[in-house]
Each structure stands twice: as C-alpha cells, then as structure tokens.
Amino acid sequence: MSVAALLAELRSRDMEVWADGDQLRCNAPAGALTPEIRDRLRQRKNDILEFLRSAETLARQQRAIIPLQPDGVRPPVFAVGGHNGDVFCYRLLAHHLGNDQPFFGLQPPGVDGLSPPLTRIEDLAAFFAGQIRAFHNDGPVVIAGFCAGGTIAFELARQLVQQGGAVSFVALFAGPHPSWYRSLPQLRERVTYLTRQARVHARALASLSYGGIRRYITERLRQRAEQRAASRGAVPDPALVSRGQVVEATLFALRRYRPRHFSGRLTLFVPNRRWLRSRNLSRRWRHVAGEIEEHCAPVGCEGDVMLQEPNVQVTADLFRRCRENSEGLG
Q1: Measuring CA to CA, which residue among 39, 35, 33, 40 is closest to residue 6?
Q2: In 3-state terms, what secondary structure has residue 21?
Q3: Which residues lie closer than 8 Å to 18 by C-beta, 6 or more apart?
Q4: So where are the chain's domains?
Q5: 3-57 in CATH: which number?
Q6: pLDDT of residue 189
Q7: Which ranges of 66-148 would DSSP assign to H, the alpha helix?
Q8: Nearest CA among 155, 72, 104, 95 for reference residue 307
Q9: What is the pLDDT of residue 233?
Q10: Cα(32)–Cα(14) distance, rounded to whole angstroms?
C-alpha cells in the first residue's frame, strides 16, 4: 500500500498523523490506534516522514497539480495542457473516463501571474517531475499532453523513467513533433492557412455581382478596422497578459528543444489520418521513442476539437483501448 493510501485510510478513521522533527506523531480516537496500525506506522515511519515533508514542501510551492477527477485506483493520469497552460481542456475527457480513472492537470509556472514562466522544456519537465514525485511516489503513472503540451509530456516521462519512476505510457493528444514549431514548418503552416482563407473568399466572391463584391470587401475591411480599434482601446486583462507570457515562453522553449531517446511507450491520439500524414508524425517520433502506437479519431475531427464534444467520447474510448493494452502488457 502506498503512503498516500495509508494516510487516507487513517484519515477515514479520524486519525491524524504529522511530522515533529524526526518523530512521527499520531492523534487518534479511543481504540482506533490498534497494535496492528501502530506496527505499520513504526515499520513505515521513514517513508511517512519523507512523504509528509515532501507534501509540506509542495504546499509551499506554486500549485501545479490540479485535480480534475481525483478518485479511482487505476494508475493516475498527469496531463500537460497546450501552449497556454490551460489544464481544463481535459475536463470533459476526465469526465468521460469515469470515476475509476484518477486524472490530474499539470499547470505550468506563470499561469497564475505570480511567478515567471519557464523557457526550457527540460526545466518545465523537471518542475512537473518533482511535483509528481512528492504527490504520488508509489506505482506507475500515465503522462499525457495536448498539442504543444505533448512535447513537455514526452520530456517529463523521459525524466521520470530516468529517475527510476514507472510510466505506463505517454498519451499525446494531437501532439506534433517539436520540430513542427521551428521557423520553416511554421512558415509553411502560415502559407497553407492563408491559401485556404483565400480560397474561401474566392468562392464567396465568385457568386456575387460587381456591387456585391464591393459590399463584401467593404464589410470585411470594416470588421477588421473595428477589431483593431477595439484591441487598441481595451484595458489589458491581467489574466490574459499572464497567459500570453506563458504562450510566448512555451513556444520559445519548443523551438529550442531537441528530444532525446525515451525507452517507453508513446501513444499518438490523432484527429484523423490526414493530420497524421501531413506532419510525418509517426516517422519523426519513432526516431526517439522505443515503441509507437497510433489511435485515430473518425474522419472530420480536427486537433483543436479532439477533447471537446462530441469528439471527446471517441477520444475517451481510444484512451481506454490503449489503457487496456498497457494493462495487458503489464
């Protein structure tokens, strides 16, 4: 039984345990501190003291671990959000996975506006690894990442395994390879987007008369001018300013990161086959991962809505399938 589970059992019996220097103290109702429990506390004294001190240190740090669904006995999922650090993108997925799957978000420094964001993927991963070890120091875990958070999740799992931790598998939800964030791939992506937008406008203009074309262009220019004016006159929202700083720092970190080999199991949850092929995803991740598994959502799903309704139910089903494969291998 893990230390966390042991302490939870004691709390359920109204027993309080705390560290007093090198001593372990216990306050219990009459008759609750049985000889069996007393022996268990003595045998695991050092582990419990270490756990309590780690928990105390964690409480003084920025809170990185956000419980989205804390119940259940399965290996817990610790999930990194996208480039803006928002872990609540997983709220619906945690709900669809049910009450037997513990699910925790990992919020990076800087989101709260109280600390500066980190600008190296390795530092972000080390920060999360320390918090996970203090929170859950016994048994395997699942590490997940959405979009840009996939790269952070990959490095986090690599560090945990390197430190002796057990990672059942790494789940990347629409997570590009980090090389996708470098200048040339981003330029290609921007050109593709602008080309797609130009085709949309061309189709709209093709069906209009000369007067209709003038009105269409005038309306688009008016909308753009209004958006610029509203942006200039708006009072900056501190929360959005902090979020913007996290985005900037994360993208900077992604462009500099060079992944090293991870001996564990990497599972790619992608919105569709076209998305998988267009980014050469499997080939690129296969260079640095010991084992690759792919799960594709139905045709029509896109990466930015993979964790939203109605697609999240399919994503949850794919995750369960991967989890069952992992348990079978274990």
Answers
A1: 40
A2: coil
A3: 24, 25, 52
A4: 3-57, 65-178+246-329, 183-234
A5: 1.10.10
A6: 60
A7: 91-97, 121-135
A8: 95
A9: 64
A10: 8
User: Same CATH fold, 65-178+246-329 and 3-57?
Assistant: no
Q: What stretches of the chain adopt beta strand conformation (E)?
A: 16-20, 23-27, 65-69, 77-80, 103-106, 141-146, 167-173, 262-270, 289-296
Q: Which residues pair with 87 in a beta bridge?
A: none
Could you give the CA distance from residue 34 to residue 28 in angstroms, rounded to a whole number?
A: 10
Taking the chain (330 residues) in runs of 10, the rounded mean pLDDT of each run is: 76 82 84 87 87 62 81 94 92 95 94 85 92 86 95 95 92 86 66 71 79 82 78 65 88 91 91 69 79 78 81 92 77
Cβ neighbors of 245 (< 8 A, separation 6 or more) are 110, 116, 117
Q: Which of 69, 61, 65, 1 is nearest to 37 (CA)?
A: 1
Res 253: pLDDT: 92
Give SS3 for 311: helix
Q: Which residue has the tokens 């990442």?
A: 145
For 2-62, where are the alpha helices, taking DSSP H only? 3-12, 35-43, 45-60
Q: What is the CATH number of domain 65-178+246-329?
A: 3.40.50.1820
Q: Of 113, 127, 145, 146, whose CA–CA distance to 244 is shortest?
A: 113
Q: Look at residue 283 in the predicted model and tell me its pLDDT.
A: 74
103 φ/ψ angles, rounded to the nearest 5 degrees: -145, 120
